[in-house]
Design goal:
By secondary structure, this protein is mainly α. Strand 1 and strand 2 form a beta hairpin. Helices cover 69% and strands 3% of the residues.
């Protein structure tokens, strides 16, 4: 394994960890300023994936490298969409709920009411599962088409 391959896998793992970080701290995405900041960072990692594919610095099959590097960007868009849909449909603000308590983000305190446990549980499940399902579908679709 050469140094370029190590750097390639390092970029893939960093984008995966950033993806996990974004999903767990989705409370911070409610402020427009932080959402745009995360969006710029994740899009720049995705552009790095385009650079990797265009220079043939790709150790994966076809364009699956792009799915991995753009996964934080796609996750941000999906999370924001789920938040907006839940707010529009139920007319209530959703909050992250885990093991019987409301979770805070790094920068934002959770202001939810603990009486709505079932709604917050459903909201949290959708926030966690929806990006994973969509990313797996994108990966499988890209793998089937390009490999």
């Amino acid at each position: 394994m050469g140094l370029l391959e190590i750097y390639f896998w390092m970029v893939i793992y960093i984008s995966g960890f950033l993806n996990f970080f974004i999903i767990t701290l989705s409370e911070d995405l409610k402020t427009k300023k932080r959402f745009k900041k995360f969006l710029k960072i994740s899009f720049s990692i995705g552009l790095f994936g385009i650079l990797m594919v265009s220079t043939d610095w790709n150790y994966l099959c076809g364009y699956t490298c792009l799915i991995f590097t753009f996964s934080p960007f796609i996750t941000l868009l999906i999370l924001k969409t789920v938040m907006i849909i839940f707010r529009k449909v139920t007319k209530k603000e959703g909050f992250h709920f885990y093991k019987g308590e409301l979770l805070d983000g790094f920068y934002q305190e959770n202001l939810g009411d603990i009486q709505h446990k079932s709604y917050y549980s459903l909201y949290s499940i959708f926030l966690f599962v929806t990006p994973l399902i969509v990313l797996v579908l994108f990966y499988k679709l890209t793998e089937n088409i390009t490999c």
